[in-house]
Structure to design on (1091 residues):
């Protein structure tokens, strides 16, 4: 196979193109989660009482800590993007590792939360823990809960993988000048994952709690 | 092959609409194919008449605006015509005969107010409005009567309504038109329109297991509803509603929905309230007991009977108005 | 290897530069990926067509001629799913689109060449999953997967099929992102937006739908699978869910998806009509923006599939009105094509015949779409063969014709060889007649009330069904014929010049077939699209001179 010319005019052109591509991909992600949020919009309205019952059984404590973790992680990574722009490889790796570390902590906590909920029979199905006339709505809430947190968790995993890859390639390429573009592209994605959580948090833990 | 009969006034009106659509389509097709042919004949290479492309291009704006606005106008007229017919077509008149139709993989069960029942057949009288209350026991079906130009999806745990006034005696096919599994094409039946006298005879000859409401009353007692709910208007203790709300005068009244919003008690509401699904009254706390769910206990036919019975407890409201399965409830 | 009359161009071209299998499977050249896609979707088309053949054979008899009810249900489900997701949605974008977008932009490749290759692998995996599911167990839900049938009642293989369709969605999104970014970023110097060929406007609009509608399908399928496995009640009324929610979500994707299945065809037809009339497209800007407005308004009309499903009357009225509105831009296109023909120098080569077939059959399909958008008449016609005829007129009569028009038109560019013109015209004519014979009777069947998805039917419908089946066999010929002569032309066809049709697009300025890097010398654009005056009397501007071979 022949060596293929890259379709770009210049490195700058290439970087712009990659970042535009990521934005467009995120637009598509918004609609992915948008479809899921429709479930929330519909059922939290038509089955409000049961929905609220479900919300009251989530673990606000873990949810709150996780929100803080993720916000910090996003901030850490932003510092990494800054470092990349200043061609500071060490800064990128440091920021990347702390962002990924916070992300992993988030996932561990989330896993623990899932574990307790499964143990409490909060997974919808025949043995569902909450009874009474509002059980149906609460089950719908927990369907939404497990699905949305699973989907978000999957995005976190991908994000952590990407950050790991950034750290690795920065580490390997220490001697050459640092290219900021991949760091920024991953940064966009990571902020998006963070943003989704910021929207999920009130929906899963707050609205209907009081 | 016979041409499809139009067995109601509505069917005739739909045919006129279809005729209108057909005429417009033929005109447009004539225009499109005509212009295509003319262009080919006149401008084919070989028979070439030189025309300056510039002059044509310059006039383009005027053409664009002209055909866009004409198309818009035609479309708007068609839209209004068809929408009006549809909205009217789905609003049942008062005093219609209510017939319950239940779809099930793969048959139609039909119940009459007098308690008669049949499968895959529907008898109706000529010239009287009939309202079908449709529900399903499993998946989504669709009840379609081409001769009347009407159909509606039949959803599980919900009532949908269709109404018509047949104007032609005879037998017409009805179909299930929503794919519902492998027996879908076998889920058909016959609509039989009888003269009022024949209809009365038919009702008389068909063995009935008590009227629907009577059967409902038996079920009401048998299933223990009467243990909590008051249902006899003038009996001693008729005002004892400490255990559960009274059924007297309930139908057609307003009550509190699950979210504290006011909802109207109609067939669909009763259906859900008994099964304890979507719309349970938001006032559970006010009573000494908790209503058990009858999901899985009562079949759709039983529910139809119970609802018919509960309706009889509100005689003044049994006018038929607003008795549709209220499509507006499903607006979400 | 094949003998060529001009070995030099051939060897330099993307086709023969490196002939190893490995170089094909790992290629990032958009032109080779287009060919990989072409091979895959052709296979799926054959598969889906065999399904159609069995359907039509079965329906010759009112009691069903050859299949059991169950097999019949599986057959139309397979036919619908394969035809929609594995053939028609990808068809023009991933083959002609992939091949042409960089060429029309004057660029060496798409913006993300590796993503392009990945999207092909995703597509192949998706296809494999779907085929596995459909043949190891099968599925009987129709292509629409309505709940609760698909979640709680079917015995079929929901999971692999749904997973396959889900994956194919990712492949679509990747293609969409690639096209949009390429069109924004990789235009040749001088190629302003209003100089873009209309094909690119159409593909741009298509890509917008790919990117924004497909994820909704993805999440819907995830919900469906979740519900199917755990029975949690999201769509199950028995557990308090709402089955209509599924329909809303599904059609929110699938209505825009029908425009995915027509816009690229409209792009092809704009190119072909202009070339074979040797005249600029009438009302260029209107045609361009009508593509965008179809894509935009197309997101707002999904409810017209649910007029009898149990939504509110109010919603039905609004959706009906919007459905009429979305038809206006299609009307604009039809009239502008006719305007283009007026005063041109019309040549009736095979691509033009297919394009004219498109205009006629699409108009019939679109007009019958209006029957369905009209509320009261839809109540009578919905879920009958009228709907089946409506969408085949647009998807087969329209889009498949457009695909064939494009294939014939760009065949010389893709392969460097001409197809046999006489046979091309014969096949086009055969397609038109076979098609009408197959599907016109279905309008009558629908009006008479014959429901769709019926394995058996009342005897009074037999005559029309037999007519339809007879038509399908002619249609089959019209598909097999090009298959044969295209393969023949690959080895024996006359050698094509760089611009056999006297067309204006940038793709015609490079050799046929193009070199791997597309243009030896990067092109500079100095004219509007479809500027035949400049083509016929080239100004002595040296930098606009094509690298002739
Ligand atoms: C490529 C695919 C494609 C395209 C482009 C369209 C285009 C249109 N479709 Fe179609 N449709 C389908 C594929 C497609 N459809 C499929 C697959 C289904 C069935 C799904 C299923 O249930 O399995 C379906 C079903 C379907 C329904 C639901 C039917 C039902 O199930 O009850 C409706 C209802 O409104 C509809 C309407 C329309 C309209 C108004 C257009 C318009 O965009 C058409 C616009 C075009 C024109 C109108 C023609 C050109 C215009 C002129 C020449 C102007 C002059 C005209 C006048 C002045 C009158 N379609
Ligand atoms: C998107 C593209 C597409 C295409 C191209 C087609 C092509 C065809 N379709 Fe299809 N069809 C759909 C999409 C498509 N269809 C969809 C979405 C449905 C709805 C499914 C559902 O309800 O869920 C449907 C449903 C559908 C039905 C309704 C089934 C029912 O409701 O019960 C029918 C019935 O006639 C039908 C017929 C045909 C025919 C005759 C063709 C013809 O064009 C095909 C002609 C071809 C042949 C007759 C065979 C040719 C053979 C070869 C090319 C093979 C080569 C030969 C050898 C290997 C020896 N289709
Ligand atoms: Cu019941 Cu189809
Ligand atoms: Cu649609």
């Amino acid at each position: 196979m022949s060596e293929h010319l890259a379709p770009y005019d210049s490195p700058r052109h290439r970087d712009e193109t990659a970042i535009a591509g990521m934005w467009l991909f995120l637009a598509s992600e918004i609609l992915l989660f948008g479809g899921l949020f429709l479930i929330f919009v519909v059922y939290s309205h038509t089955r409000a009482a049961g929905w609220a019952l479900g919300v009251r059984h989530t673990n606000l404590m873990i949810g709150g800590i996780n929100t803080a973790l993720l916000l910090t992680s996003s901030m850490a990574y932003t510092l990494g993007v800054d470092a990349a722009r200043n061609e500071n490889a060490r800064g990128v790796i440091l920021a990347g590792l702390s962002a990924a570390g916070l992300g992993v902590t988030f996932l561990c906590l989330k896993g623990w939360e899932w574990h307790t909920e499964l143990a409490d029979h909060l997974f919808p199905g025949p043995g569902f823990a909450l009874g009474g006339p509002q059980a149906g709505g609460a089950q719908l809430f927990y369907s939404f809960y497990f699905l949305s947190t699973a989907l978000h968790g999957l995005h976190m995993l991908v994000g952590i993988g990407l950050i790991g890859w950034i750290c690795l390639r920065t580490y390997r390429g220490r001697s050459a000048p640092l290219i900021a573009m991949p760091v920024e592209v991953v940064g966009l994605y990571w902020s998006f994952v963070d943003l989704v959580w910021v929207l999920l948090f009130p929906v899963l833990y707050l609205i209907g709690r009081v | 092959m016979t041409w499809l009969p139009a067995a109601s006034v509505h069917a005739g009106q739909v045919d006129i609409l279809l005729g209108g659509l057909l005429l417009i389509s033929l005109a447009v097709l004539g225009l499109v194919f005509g212009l295509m042919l003319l262009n080919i004949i006149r401008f084919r290479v070989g028979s070439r008449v030189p025309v300056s492309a510039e002059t044509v291009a310059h006039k383009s704006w005027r053409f664009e605006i002209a055909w866009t606005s004409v198309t818009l106008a035609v479309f708007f007229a068609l839209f209004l015509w068809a929408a009006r017919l549809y909205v009217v077509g789905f609003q049942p008149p008062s005093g219609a005969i209510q017939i319950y139709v239940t779809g099930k993989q793969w048959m139609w069960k039909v119940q009459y107010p007098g308690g008669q029942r049949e499968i895959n057949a529907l008898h109706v009288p000529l010239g009287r409005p009939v309202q079908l209350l449709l529900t399903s026991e499993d998946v989504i079906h669709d009840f379609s009567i081409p001769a009347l130009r009407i159909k509606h999806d039949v959803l599980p745990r919900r009532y949908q309504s269709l109404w018509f006034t047949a104007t032609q005696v005879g037998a017409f096919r009805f179909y299930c038109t929503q794919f519902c599994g492998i027996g879908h094409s076998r889920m058909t039946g016959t609509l039989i329109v009888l003269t009022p006298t024949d209809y009365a005879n038919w009702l008389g000859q068909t063995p009935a297991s008590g009227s629907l409401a009577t059967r409902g009353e038996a079920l009401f007692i048998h299933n223990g509803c009467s243990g909590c709910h008051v249902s006899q208007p003038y009996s001693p203790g008729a005002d004892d509603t400490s255990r559960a709300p009274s059924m007297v005068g309930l139908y057609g009244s307003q009550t509190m929905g699950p979210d504290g919003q006011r909802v109207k008690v109609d067939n669909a509401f009763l259906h859900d309230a008994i099964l304890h699904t979507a719309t349970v009254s938001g006032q559970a706390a006010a009573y000494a007991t908790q209503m058990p769910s009858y999901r899985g206990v009562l079949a759709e036919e039983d529910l139809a009977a119970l609802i018919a019975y509960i309706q009889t407890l509100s005689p003044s409201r049994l006018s038929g108005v607003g008795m549709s399965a209220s499509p507006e409830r499903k607006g979400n | 290897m094949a003998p060529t009359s001009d070995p030099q161009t051939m060897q330099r071209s993307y086709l023969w530069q490196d002939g190893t299998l490995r170089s094909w499977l790992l290629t990032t050249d958009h032109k080779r990926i287009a060919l990989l896609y072409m091979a895959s979707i052709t296979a799926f088309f054959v598969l889906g067509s065999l399904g159609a053949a069995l359907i039509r054979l079965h329906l010759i008899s009112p009691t069903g001629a050859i299949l059991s009810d169950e097999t019949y249900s599986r057959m139309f489900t397979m036919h619908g799913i394969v035809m929609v997701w594995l053939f028609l949605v990808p068809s023009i974008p991933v083959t002609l689109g992939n091949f042409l977008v960089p060429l029309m932009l004057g660029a060496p490749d798409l913006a993300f060449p590796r993503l392009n290759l990945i999207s092909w692998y995703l597509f192949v995996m998706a296809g494999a999953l779907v085929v596995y599911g459909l043949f190891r167990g099968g599925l009987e839900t129709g292509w629409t997967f309505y709940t609760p049938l698909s979640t709680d009642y079917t015995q079929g293989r929901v999971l692999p099929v749904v997973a396959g369709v889900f994956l194919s969605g990712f492949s679509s999104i990747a293609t969409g992102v690639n096209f949009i970014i390429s069109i924004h970023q990789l235009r040749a110097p001088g190629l302003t937006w209003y100089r873009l060929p209309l094909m690119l406007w159409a593909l741009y609009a298509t890509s917008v739908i790919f990117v924004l509608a497909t994820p909704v399908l993805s999440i819907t399928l995830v919900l469906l699978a979740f519900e199917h496995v755990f029975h949690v009640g999201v769509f199950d009324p028995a557990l308090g869910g709402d089955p209509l929610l599924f329909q809303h979500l599904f059609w929110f994707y699938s209505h825009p998806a029908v425009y995915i299945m027509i816009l690229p065809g409209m792009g092809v037809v704009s190119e072909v009509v202009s070339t074979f009339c040797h005249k600029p497209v009438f009302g260029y800007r209107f045609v361009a923006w009508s593509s965008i407005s179809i894509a935009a308004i197309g997101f707002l009309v999904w409810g017209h599939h649910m007029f009898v499903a149990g939504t509110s009357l109010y919603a039905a009225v609004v959706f009906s009105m919007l459905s009429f509105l979305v038809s206006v831009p299609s009307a604009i296109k039809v009239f502008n094509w006719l305007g283009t023909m007026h005063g041109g120098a019309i040549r009736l080569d095979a691509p033009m015949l297919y394009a004219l077939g498109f205009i006629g059959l699409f108009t019939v399909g679109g007009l019958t779409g209006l029957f369905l958008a009209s509320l009261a008449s839809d109540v009578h016609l919905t879920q009958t063969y009228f709907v089946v005829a409506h969408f085949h007129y647009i998807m087969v009569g329209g889009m498949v014709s457009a695909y064939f028009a494009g294939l014939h038109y760009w065949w010389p560019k893709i392969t460097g060889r001409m197809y046999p013109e006489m046979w091309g015209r014969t096949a086009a004519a055969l397609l038109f007649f076979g098609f009408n014979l197959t599907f016109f009777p279905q309008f009558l069947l629908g009006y008479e009330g014959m429901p769709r998805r019926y394995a058996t039917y009342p005897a009074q419908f037999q005559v029309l069904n037999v007519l339809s089946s007879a038509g399908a066999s002619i249609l089959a010929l019209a598909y097999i014929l090009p298959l044969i002569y295209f393969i023949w032309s690959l080895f024996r066809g006359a050698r094509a010049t760089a611009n056999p049709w006297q067309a204006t697009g940038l793709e015609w300025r490079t050799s046929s077939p193009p070199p791997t890097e597309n243009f030896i010398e990067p092109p500079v654009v100095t004219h509007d699209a479809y500027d035949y005056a400049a083509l016929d009397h080239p100004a002595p501007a040296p930098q606009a001179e094509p690298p002739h071979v």
Summary: Residues B 24, 28, 32, 71, 74; C 144, 258-259, 261-262, 304-305, 307, 323, 326-327, 330-331, 334, 363, 366-367, 369-370, 372-373, 378, 382, 387, 390-391, 394-395, 399 surround heme-A (ligand 1) (CB under 6 Å). The interface with chain A takes residues 258-259, 276-278, 280, 282, 284, 290-291, 293, 332 of chain B (CB under 8 Å). The CA atoms of residues 100 and 133 of chain B lie 5 Å apart.
